[in-house]
Amino acid sequence: MRTLKRFGAETAALVLATVIFLVPFSFMLLTAVKDRSQAADLDFAWPANWPIVRNFMDVVEARDYVLLRAFVNSTILTVASVALIVIFAAMAAFVLQRRAGKAGSLANFLVLSGLIIPPAIVPTIWLLQALGLFKTLPGLILVEVAFGLSYAVLLFRAFIAAIPRELDEAAQIDGCSGLRLFFRVIFPLLRPVTLTVILTTSVAVFNDFVNPLYFTPGNENATVQVTLYNFQSQYSTQWNLLFMDIVLITIPPLLLFVFFNRKIVAGMTAGAIKG
């Protein structure tokens, strides 16, 4: 009886997952390969013809190949943001875990606040303008780092909690300074959680729409998510090109998830257990 209930629960979960993920994805693919008139119906009808290459070329060539520039910008944004998040979050988590006290409690409160308090757009724009970084890719990188640090710090700290302090003491006896202790002894042990932070944060930064929209307006520093506006208007939306753009944007994060989902789950599980 228990086995039957378990099988029923697994079947229900599989059906629910299929409805939630595969149905919208199928609709997106079908619409992306239709012509403009048929795509305007927004239904599950089979395409009357298959203008796949034409839709693809129209998306790539739109607004002087803005999609290609956007992929370059998104790649730079993702790589730089994730690298800074990993380094800063790992170092901060190590210090917070090893040095408890009132200052540590305050720092923990600020880290949690970063997850709870919603980001303020207008003050951030004022700050970037004061620094001369508004509408620039470096400014957007700093914004992504600031918004992604809290999540990464919590993951790193949970993992560092399981690393014995005796390693720190032994390295210090051997003459390791603070930075050398961290990068030579501690950081190599953080590989599982580091991979998890890299993969999850990469997907989050690459898929970010709001921050690039507000902090880097214009085509010069546009990211792939902002290119969705190219095919939308108040009166006439090119649904086939819009969904083709969505398909092209979805491919990199989807490949990351398909090939590295086990590492993501293993890293988060290890952090949870060790914490």
CATH superfamily annotation: MetI-like
In CATH, the architecture is Orthogonal Bundle
Number of strands: 0
Assess the beta-strand content as a share of residues. Answer: under 5%
What is the terminal separation in angstroms? 36 Å
Q: Radius of gyration, Cα only, in angstroms? A: 23 Å
Short description:
The chain crosses the membrane at residues 12-33, 76-96, 108-128, 140-160, 181-206, 239-260. The chain has 275 residues and is an all-alpha fold.
Protein described:
The protein has eleven helices and no strands. With 275 residues, it is mainly alpha-helical. The protein has one domain: MetI-like fold (Orthogonal Bundle). 29% of the residues are buried.
